[in-house]
Amino acid sequence: MAQTSLLRDRCLVSFSILGGVILGITVLSLLSMTVKELSDIPHLVRVAMDAKVIDSIVLTMGAGANAIALLLIFGIPLAYVLARADFRGKGMVESIVDIPLMLPHTVAGILVYLLFMKRGLIGAPLQSVGIVFEDAYPGIVVAMLFVASPYFINSAREGFEKVPVHLENVARTLGASRMTAFFRIALPLSARHIYNGAIMAWGRAIGEFAAIIMIAYYPMVISTLIYYRFTTSGIKESSTIAFVMILACFVVFMMLRYLSRFLGRSDDRV
């Protein structure tokens, strides 16, 4: 019935055709790569089983997950403040949150490097306690955190803004503190937005290249490894690694999107 209704609705049909152009470009590019890679199965298997490729994919996804963990700790409080508080300079704070969206990736990398390098404002004191960012795993995480933060914070803020304020006010009139109202009402009702924001931020984080190589060329994340193999072994080797990464990301994102269907569905009716 739903398909029949869609076909009879000229507006939806027109929009589907226009939107299909975007999908078509993505599908054609994927098909082009897939056909090329499947034409040489032995080469594909050899590259896919390369320990460096596997380690790089695991490193990339793990660093992205750590960046999201930090965003959960520091980003959720900021998103809640932006959603609930009106204060002088709020527009400037919101613009600062969005800055990583607007910057070229190399500029983001320079900003991260200046702050976390061995002589940087944060990098220098942390180096004295043994935490190094240059050419080290923490450098990858902070670069991912910087470029992915707007996606998470804006999504979480949107989720908090959709929670009716009067629900928290009722809880507070019944004796709950603001902190209790946050954990018992605002946070659970915003869980779906926070989860979707985390997925988008994680995807942005693992796709970063320029900002990461500015501070941590080593250990190689997958984007750095692809660039390295492109310059040393050519397009065939690098495109096969890219194909393996696409397959891994596709599977992971399919699972994450599927799980999102079960998170906070009943809360959307609020």
TrEMBL record:
Keyword line: Cell membrane, Membrane, Molybdenum, Transmembrane, Transmembrane helix, Transport
One Gene Ontology biological process: transmembrane transport
Annotated GO CC locations: plasma membrane
Chain ranges of the ABC transmembrane type-1 domain: 57-256
The keyword Membrane is assigned to this record: yes
Pfam family of the protein (one): BPD_transp_1
Cell compartments where the protein resides: Cell membrane
Annotated transmembrane regions: 12-33, 53-83, 95-116, 136-153, 209-228, 240-259
Broad class of the protein's primary localization: membrane
Entry keyword annotation includes Transmembrane helix: yes
Membrane topology (UniProt): Multi-pass membrane protein
Gene3D superfamilies the UniProt entry points to: MetI-like (1.10.3720.10)
InterPro entries, per database record: MetI-like, MetI-like_sf
Family note: Belongs to the binding-protein-dependent transport system permease family.
PANTHER family: MOLYBDENUM TRANSPORT SYSTEM PERMEASE PROTEIN MODB
Protein name: Molybdenum ABC transporter permease
UniProt source species: Methanofollis fontis
